[in-house]
Specification:
Blueprint: H1 23-30, E1 63-68, H2 72-88, E2 91-92, E3 101-106, H3 111-126, E4 130-135, H4 136-140, E5 151-153, H5 161-169, E6 175-176, E7 181-182, E8 185-186, E9 203-207, E10 209-210, H6 221-225, E11 229-230, H7 233-245, E12 250-254, H8 269-277, E13 285-287, H9 293-296, H10 300-307, E14 315-317, H11 325-331, H12 337-350, E15 355-362, H13 369-382, E16 386-391, H14 408-422, E17 435-443, E18 450-453, E19 459-462, E20 471-480, E21 485-489, E22 496-497, H15 514-517, E23 525-527, E24 534-537, H16 540-544, H17 556-574
Parallel strand pairs: 1-2, 1-3, 3-4, 4-5, 5-6, 9-12, 12-13, 14-15, 15-16, 19-21
Antiparallel strand pairs: 7-8, 10-11, 17-18, 17-20, 18-19, 20-21, 20-22, 23-24
Length: about 575
């Protein structure tokens, strides 16, 4: 058989000629070879290096649109979720069309609110947006058909919003609906020192407890928020102090029933309020949220003293719902009309000028015309300056939904009649000509005025002068409407600057913990603020190693960190080792 080669090699070394490079020479040459770096296309989508494409899978690169419905408690939850997402690197946008994911924070009190929520989900799906739902609707009824396949954040799981959003962006469905407990005892909810983006940088909403002690037959919120669970006094006081250090000048205390605060942890509302009052700086104010009559009755003397304090608004929201004892019994409200009147009469006598706001439900099942007229007489007697009138809506799963319903036309007419009565009187006409001290905190809906409140939490519109925002000033009242007064600042009066420090900018993250501030590595750009260091742009290599301090208990993030580290290595390799910041 012929050979495969013309000549036979005796040894493998015969293929190396004298002119070839020796091994040590090859190593020297290799050290002088420079890899060619692949350059990005500078015209791709006209995006800058620090704004990755919207469909990027790099954590924190997406845009999130957040919509919240409902009460102050729900709004506070929405602010906390926005703060955590922004702190992690996501961009919170006001433009729903440009967002990659919609976070919809729902309210279950009335049918119209849930209808808006359901329609928003449908619209998001039509626009091919990722969707995460939160709030009381999915917490109370997670198995509804229109929620199938959607990620859900429970009302006590808002501190895990980053995890849920990331998994949703990957195409997964995540549902976190559990309760937070400590040694088997239910807690008030997520920590109060989480990052937060206040809708109004001058106003801090603090939830002092979640849930309630009642079992009202019409209430769906109870199914979502559950029984009473209060935050410790110390934790609430610390949150208030932190807020004032971040430029806040007005604090709202909120919950499903502030009057019940502390009954589950061996304290009470007056004890908390006296501690909070000690922290309020001159020129700042505290507003107390809604309380039901049964629990405030026990503390009337102390509450009157607190509401007379110059740094506490003389304002209280006490829902009566109906002036018929038979209707209140069917509602299981646990008080009678005489109890409500006792609270109102006592506070009006002991706190001169106090504003009492209340709620009324028209057309509750079994409400007769005589029952309704009792409610009309109550409104005529007290002429409430702030009255929330609600037509009854049967909520699924509540006892009231199974009761004999008042005809829709009758409910509608009673709602209309009570509204006409409310608009027949002017609560502020007698105040024209007064000189009042007001705290300016926001802009009016028509953008023509700034909105301030006097010591009774009555709305006063003042000129749109930027120097007034966040200040306590004196004004002369020159006009009154149904829901407001108008005031002209007094030129020679003293102006109080309530804030201890400069307020955070709109959209700026508050409440970053020390661990989080020091997590980014060298090369991070910082946005300076007197009370917090907030990362604006963080290298990818820093984010992949970061475990959020408020989520360290979850083992899932450890796996996530490893996955992100592998992803980062691939990205760095792809870009040829360039120092690319995202």
């Amino acid at each position: 058989m012929p050979a495969a080669c013309d000549s036979v090699l005796e040894d493998i070394e015969d293929i190396v000629s004298a002119e070839d490079l020796k091994p040590h020479d090859r190593q020297f040459v290799r050290q002088n070879v420079f890899p060619k770096v692949r350059k990005r296309s500078s015209q791709k989508n006209n995006q800058t290096d620090d704004e990755p494409p919207s469909d990027s899978i790099i954590p924190g690169a997406q845009k999130i649109w957040i919509r919240t419905w409902g009460c102050s408690h729900n709004n506070s939850d929405g602010e906390y979720m926005a703060g955590q997402l922004a702190a992690y690197g996501y961009k919170i946008t006001d433009n729903s069309a440009e967002a990659d994911l919609w976070l919809l924070n729902s309210c279950t009190v009335k049918n119209p609110a849930e209808d808006h929520f359901r329609n928003s989900i449908k619209k998001a799906q039509q626009e091919k947006k990722k969707v995460v739902v939160a709030g009381c609707v999915p917490q109370a009824q997670p198995r509804q058909d229109y929620l199938k396949g959607l990620s859900i954040i429970g009302v006590q799981q808002i501190d895990r919003v980053v995890e849920v959003v990331e998994e949703t962006i990957k195409g997964h469905s995540v549902r976190l609906l559990g309760q937070k407990k400590d040694n088997g005892k239910r807690l008030g909810g997520a920590r109060l020192d989480l990052p937060k983006i206040r809708k109004n940088p001058l106003i801090e909403i603090i939830s002092i407890n979640t849930g309630c002690l009642n079992a009202c037959t019409y209430c769906k919120t109870k199914h979502a928020r559950g029984d009473l669970a209060s935050y410790p006094v110390e934790e609430l006081v610390n949150r208030a102090k932190q807020s004032f250090q971040e430029g806040v000048c007005e604090i709202w205390l909120t919950s499903e029933d502030t009057g019940a605060y502390g009954r589950d942890i061996g304290t009470d509302l007056p004890t908390l309020l006296w501690k909070l009052v000690e922290t309020i700086p001159e020129g700042a104010m505290l507003r107390l949220g809604m309380t039901n009559p049964p629990y405030i009755l026990e503390h009337l003397e102390e509450m009157a003293k607190i509401l007379n304090h110059p740094r506490v608004y003389a304002f209280l929201h006490i829902p009566v719902q109906s002036a018929s004892d038979s209707v209140l019994m069917d509602m299981k409200r646990e008080y009678c009309v005489a109890d409500f009147k006792q609270v109102v009469d006592f506070l009006k006598a002991k706190v001169p000028g106090i504003t009492i706001a209340t709620d009324i439900i028209c057309g509750f099942p079994g409400e007769t015309e005589e029952d309704f007229q009792e409610t009309v007489k109550l409104v005529e007697q007290y002429r409430f300056p702030s009255l929330f009138i609600n037509q009854f809506y049967p909520r699924p799963g509540t006892p009231a939904a199974k009761m004999h319903q008042v005809p829709a036309a009758v409910k509608k007419q009673r709602t209309k009649d009570l509204s006409q009565l409310f608009h027949s009187y002017s609560p502020y006409d007698h105040k024209v000509g007064e000189r009042q001290r007001v705290l300016v905190t926001e802009e009016s809906f028509d953008s023509n005025y700034y909105v301030a409140h006097n010591p009774f939490y009555e709305q006063v519109l003042v000129p749109k002068d930027p120097s007034l925002m966040g200040k306590m000033v004196e004004v002369n009242i020159y006009e009154a409407g149904k829901h407001f007064m108008k005031g002209q600042p007094v030129s020679d009066a003293r102006v109080y600057t309530a804030s201890i420090t400069r307020p955070l900018a709109k959209g700026e993250v508050s409440g970053l913990t020390g661990e989080f501030r020091h997590a980014p590595q060298n090369g991070t750009n910082w946005k300076a603020h007197p009370s917090a260091e907030i990362p604006v742009k963080t290298p990818l290599s820093s984010w992949v190693a970061l475990q959020l301090p408020w989520q360290q208990e979850g083992g899932g993030l450890k796996i996530l960190s490893v996955s992100l580290a592998l992803l980062a290595a691939l990205v760095m390799f792809y870009y040829g080792g360039m120092k690319t910041e995202l």
